[in-house]
Amino acid sequence: KMEEFLNFMQLKTSLKEAVLLDYYTAGFCWAKEMNFSVIQLSGFMDLLNFALENLSDKHITLGDNLKELGRAMAGIGETDSEERGDLTLFSIEQAKAIIDYLVTSLFKHYKAYEYLFHGRREEPVISNE
């Protein structure tokens, strides 16, 4: 289902698509294990996508991506601030768990993801044989 949602057409031959499918599926499963509500699950998946797009599309460094994540998560646990965005739906404990998850799943492997998105790779030549 995730493959269809992400509209991956070359999953069997694209390392990039396979890695991204694994990243999003693992994140989704983790969020389900955390018993996030549907709205929280959506917000969490947005955070995963936000951090990954910062790396893949914007070429943001690890330090800057961590700062962006901090800005995106600012206000979690506050109830009287609407301008903070939809992430106020997470408790402080959930926010800590989310940060731990992002550190473990993405930020510890940042160089590998940078290479996946920005490293030069030669196209393999595959014969009919």
TrEMBL record:
<dbReference type="InterPro" id="IPR032727">
    <property type="entry name" value="CLAMP"/>
</dbReference>
<protein>
    <submittedName>
        <fullName>CBCO1 protein</fullName>
    </submittedName>
</protein>
<dbReference type="Pfam" id="PF14769">
    <property type="entry name" value="CLAMP"/>
</dbReference>
